[in-house]
Amino acid sequence: MDDKKISREAILCEALALLKEVGLDGLSLRALAARVGVRAPSLYWYFKDKNELLDGLMEEVFNQCLDMVPNHLKWRDWMRAFGEALLQAQAQVPDFGRLVTTTDISDDHFYRTIERLREKLERLDMPFDEAVKLQSSVQALTTGWSDFTHAPYANKLRTVFDPDAVALHSLDALIQGWTWDAGV
Q: Residue 146 CB: number of other CB atoms within 10 A?
């Protein structure tokens, strides 16, 4: 890819592919630049530093998950589909949980995400302020399961139970047991 054809979206696409291949520790601006076919300083036109790149990766993966969820009116249906989309996406990116828990996001990213969530969640038969709490709980649960299924001992777990099935069971238990109280 030459400098004339490079774009932020193309860089994020290649960064995500690289993250899947080498993990968070192997993802560097230098390695990404080589993969994209430019010198590392060229990336600074698009990302001021590695944290901004990681911030962009988180937003890209999260938006892909949101885009995978069909429109639903019933909150339980939407939350289940959202959880499945997260589990599916995170299965492809072994270090995604670490990425989420160690990368700071920009204010702009945060507010864009809240607005995207508002677009999706205000359609549901649940108040937005409650829906965003449950959406965050679903995300925390699935990210935890994703980390668990990518742990070094994950294959040992698989001899005892199917972590993917238990993750879905846990997701269902969270959603089915959710109640809301104006005081929380």
A: 26
3-state secondary structure of 59: helix
Q: Which residues contact 110 (CB under 8 A, 6 or more apart)?
A: none
Q: How far is CA 160 from CA 139, 156, 165, in A?
A: 25, 7, 12
Cα–chain center distance at 40? 26
State which amino acid sits at residue 115.
Answer: E
What does the pLDDT read at residue 183?
Answer: 54
Alpha-carbon distances of 132 from 2, 20, 118, 122, 127, rounded to whole Å: 41, 28, 8, 10, 9
The mean of the pLDDT values for the chain is 92
Q: How far apart are CA 111 and CA 163, in angstroms?
A: 33
35-68 pLDDT, tens digit each: 999 998 899 999 999 999 999 999 999 999 999 9
Separation between Cα atoms, residue 132 and residue 150, nearest integer Å:
27
What percentage of the chain carries pLDDT values higher than 90? 84
- Taking a C-beta distance cutoff of 8 angstroms, is the pair 10, 35 a contact? no
pTM score, two decimals? 0.89
CA–CA separation, 65 vs 145, rounded Å? 16
